[in-house]
C-alpha cells in the first residue's frame, strides 16, 4: 500500500462519521471554478488535515482538495 492510498483510506474513514464541508457541492469537481474561491470553505472543513495530506501525496488530477487544484500528477512520498 502506498502512502497516498493509506492517506485516502484515512480520509474515507473519517467521512463515514463526519460530513466534509464540500458535501453535495459540485463546484469542487468543476474544472472551471477557481480553487481560491473554494479554499475558504475548505478551511472550515472538519476533515481538512486528512484531505490536505492525501492531496499532497497523490496530487489528484481532478477536483479541489483542501483548497488546491493540482495541475500535474507528480506524486511524492510514495
Ligand atoms: S478540505 Fe477536502 S473534504 Fe474538506 S471541503 Fe475541502 S475539498 Fe472537501
Topology:
Blueprint: H1 3-17, H2 35-42, H3 48-58
Helix pairs in contact: 1-3
The chain binds iron/sulfur cluster.
Iron/sulfur cluster is lined by residues 20-22, 28, 41-42, 45, 47-48, 51, 64-66.
Describe this structure in words.
The chain is an all-alpha fold and 78 residues long. It has one domain (3-58). 44% of the residues lie in helices and 0% in strands. The N and C termini lie close together (9 Å). The mean pLDDT is 93.
List keywords for this structure.
binds iron/sulfur cluster, mainly alpha, globular, 3 helices
Write a concise synopsis of the structure shown.
The chain is built from 3 helices and no strands. It is mainly α and 78 residues long. Helix 1 packs antiparallel against helix 3 (48-58).
Order of helices and strands: HHH
Query: How many domains comprise the coordinates?
Result: 1
Question: pLDDT average, as an integer?
Answer: 93
* Secondary-structure content class: mainly alpha
Flag low-confidence runs. Answer: none
